[in-house]
Amino acid sequence: MIKKLHLIFLFFFLIESAYSKEIRSRFGFFIDVPSDYTALQDQNIDDLLKNFEGSELNKEYTNDVLAGMTKNEMNIEYYLPNKSMDPAINNMYMMVMNGNIKEYFAYDLKELCSEMQSLFSKMYNNPNLKQYDCKTKAKEINRNLNLYMEHDGPFKNQFLYIYYFQTKGGLTAAALGCERKNCNKIKRDLISIINSISE
User: Which of 41, 76, 79, 193 could pair with 95 as two cysteines, CB 3.0-4.6 Å apart?
Assistant: First the structure.
């Protein structure tokens, strides 16, 4: 009987390890990334902006928003799907910035949501950008203080979901961009990554 229990335990362990891999993020904490994603860990936001030549991203406004930040203040780590999804439109990312999530809670939520919609609207050069949800304390993640938003992404038929929360590294944003048909799966994967953070 004990051999059977050991065998069952080993079987579940092997299945779990086949579906995710623990990595050390560039931000100093460990996360479990689903095995069907590749982590890009050594790219800075400045380097990423260079790749958006001719895209729908408003680089000038984005540079203004990021003005004054050093390279170490806003690093980004991408998680790209390995197959069956276009990684340019379907991806997840995490970034840690100087600041504290408590700063967001000093503002009225309605005002904060409106400002964030305006910021993304200008950044994506889309005056008609729709915000579908904006709330505090999203229950699906294990961070008590958090801010959650969902709105149109920078590309046609793309949606963007963002969670802001605190880690030891600073104010952390975990986000995903997705085509509607892929959003449910990628969002589950992002929530899983957030909830796996080990500091």
Answer: 76
Q: What is the pLDDT of residues 117-147, one digit of tens each?
A: 999 999 899 999 999 999 999 999 999 899 9
The CATH number that applies at residue 73 is 3.40.1000.10
User: What angle separates helix 109-123 from helix 59-66, to the nearest 10 degrees?
Assistant: 130
| Nearest partner of 154 among 44, 77, 81, 58, judged by Cα | 58
> Which residues make Cβ contacts (< 8 Å) with residue 107, sequence separation at least 6?
115
Residue 11 lies in a domain: no
Is 8 domain-assigned?
A: no
Both structure tokens of 156: 């046609």
**Domain membership flag for residue 17:** no
Q: Could you tell me if 142 and 44 are in contact, meaning their C-beta atoms sit under 8 angstroms apart?
A: no
Region label for 170, one of left (φ > 0), alpha (ψ between -120 and 50) or beta (otherwise): left
pLDDT at residue 7 tops 80: no
User: What is the domain extent for residue 46?
Assistant: 22-195
**Residue 138, domain member (yes or no):** yes
Into how many domains does the chain fold?
1
Output 145 or 26, whichever has higher pLDDT: 145
